[in-house]
Amino acid sequence: MAAIALELRHLRRGLFDLFVTVAFLVIVATVYHYESGSKWSYGTSLYFMVVSLLGIGFGDVVPRTEDLRLFTTLFRFVCNTADVCHANTSSF
Amino acid sequence: MLIFVLIKDLVELVIYRRQQLQFSIQSNLINVAARKIQAALGDAKKLEKIRSRTISTSAQELVTSVTSRVVPDFVHQISEKFPRFFKATMVLLTLTAYILASAAVLKATNATDPPSTLSDNVYFTVTSGLTIGYGDILPSEGSHWFMVFWLPLHVIFFAQMVYMFDNAVRAPLDSVEVATESNGEITIPRTLEMDAFLNVSEGTEITEAEFMRFMLVNAGVVPEALLDDMHTRFNEMNTFLGGSDDRMSTLNKRDMAVFASESKAVADDPHKENVELVPVSMRTSSANFDGDVTKKENVEV
User: Fold this and answer.
1) Yes or no, beta carbons of B1 and A60 under 8 Å apart
2) pLDDT 10s digit of each residue in chain A, 92 long?
3) Same domain for B188 and B278?
C-alpha cells in the first residue's frame, strides 16, 4: 500500500513537472512563431525548443535575425540553468 | 514516459528479484505477528482488516513465482555469482535492443534526412541520445512533430541507462573499519559509501530511520538482528494501530508511553530469563496491550 502511495506521489509530481514544462515550451514556441513573422510554424518552433533545451543542437533550425539571436542567448542561459538546477533537486 | 517507466521496471524486476523475496518474507513475518496479536485479543474483525492490508504480499509472491518460471535457472546462478557483471550486461542488452528497435523505426518511417541505411540510423540514434548532435544526419522536415515528443523520452532513457550501468560497474560496498579512539568514542567514517541506498527499488527518498540503520549496520556498531527485531516490533504496533508501513507511522507519544511501561514491567521482573529481545506481542506472558503485567498477576492470584 505504502509502495503504491509512494508511486502515486511520484507520478503526481512527475505529471506536474511535465505539465509545467509543456506549458512553458508551448508559450515560448508561440513567441518564436510570431517573432519570426510566421516563418517558423508551431511545429518548427517546438522542435527548436526541444532540441536546444536537451542540448542536442542539430543546427538545422536556428534563429537568423538579430533580435531572435539576442533573445535566444539570454533566454537559453536562464532556461538551461533552471533546468539543471531542477534536475539536481528533483527525482523525476 | 509510461513505456520508459515500464522498461526500467522490467529491468529492475529481474535485477532485484532477490530483494523482492526478502521483502515478501518480511511481510509474512508481519502477517504472522498480526495473527498472534489477534488470537490474543480474540477480535475477528480486526484480523480481516490487517489481512486486507497485507494482501500485497500475495501479489509479490505471484510476481516472484512468475519470474522464477520465465527466467531460466542458470540466469539466477549467474546473477548471484557475478551480480555486477549481470547487472551491467542486462543494462547493455536493454540499451542495444532499444537502439536497434528505434533505428529500425526511424528507417521505416524515413525520419532522417538524408534518407540513410540502418547503420546511419543507429549513428543518428546514438548521437542524439547522448546529446552530441553533430548535425550531419538530421531529422527530416516532416518528422519535426515526432521528434518533439520522442527526443525528450529518448534522451532521458539514455541518461537512465548510463546511470544504471554506472551503478552496476561501480565498486561494491567495502567493509568499513570503525575507529575506536583512546577515550572509547566510536566514530563512523564520513567516507562510508552510500551505494547500497541505490538498491532500494521502491521510491527514492529515504527516511532518517533508514539512514541511521544503514550507518550503524555498515559501520558494525550495532548487530543487524537487533535492528531487525526493532523494525518488526515497530511494524507490529503500527499495523495494530492502523498504520500500513514504517513510512506512514500512526504511533503517537501515548502509545510509546504504554510500550515503555510494559518494557519497564518486564525489566523489573525478578525472573530475569524472560528478558529477551522477543517482540512484545509474541511474548505469551503479556498478550494484551494494556501493558500492566503486575496488575494482571494480581488478578490471577
Assistant:
1) no
2) 666 776 777 777 778 878 888 888 899 899 999 988 888 999 999 999 999 888 898 999 999 888 889 989 988 888 777 776 666 555 44
3) yes
| Residue B144 to residue A59, Cβ atoms within 8 A | no
Q: Is A5 on the interface with B (CB under 8 A)?
A: yes
Task: Check if the interface score ipTM surpasses 0.90.
Answer: no
Q: Which of B50, B134, B148 to mutate to test the interface with A (most CBs of A within 10 A)?
A: B148
Does one domain contain both B243 and B211? yes
Q: What is the C-alpha separation between B220 and B154, in angstroms, rounded? A: 43
Residues of chain A found within 8 Å of residue B131, distances taken between Cβ atoms: 54-56
A 10 A CB-CB count for B47 gives: 16
Q: What is the dihedral of CA A32, A37, A43, A72, to 10 degrees?
A: -20
> How far from B157 is each of A12, B98, B118, B257, CA to CA, in Å?
20, 9, 21, 50
Q: How many CB atoms lie within 10 A of CB B33?
A: 22
Q: Are residues B269 and B244 in the same domain?
A: yes
State the smallest CA–CA distance between residue B145 and chain A in angstroms. 6
Q: What range does the domain containing B14 cover?
A: 1-79
B179: part of which helix (H) or strand (E)? strand B179-180
Q: Are A29 and A49 in contact (CB under 8 A)?
A: yes
Cross-chain residue pair B133–A57, CB shorter than 8 Å: yes
Given B37, B62, B79, which residue is the final one in a domain? Answer: B79
Instruction: Choose the mutation target among A21, A42, A51 for the interface with B, i.e. most B CBs under 10 Å.
Output: A51
What gap in Å lies between CA B164 and CA B274, rounded to an integer?
48
Is the same domain home to B48 and B153?
A: no
pLDDT in tens, B229-265: 777 777 777 776 666 555 556 667 776 777 677 667 7
B56, B133, B205 member nearest A56 (Cβ): B133
Q: Where are the domains of chain A?
A: 24-89
Q: Where are the alpha helices (DSSP H) in chain B?
A: 2-15, 17-41, 44-53, 56-70, 73-81, 83-108, 118-129, 144-169, 208-218, 224-240, 253-267, 293-300
> Has residue B278 got a pLDDT over 70?
no
- Structurally, chain B folds into a number of domains equal to 3
Report d(CA B31, CA B52) in Å as an integer. Answer: 10
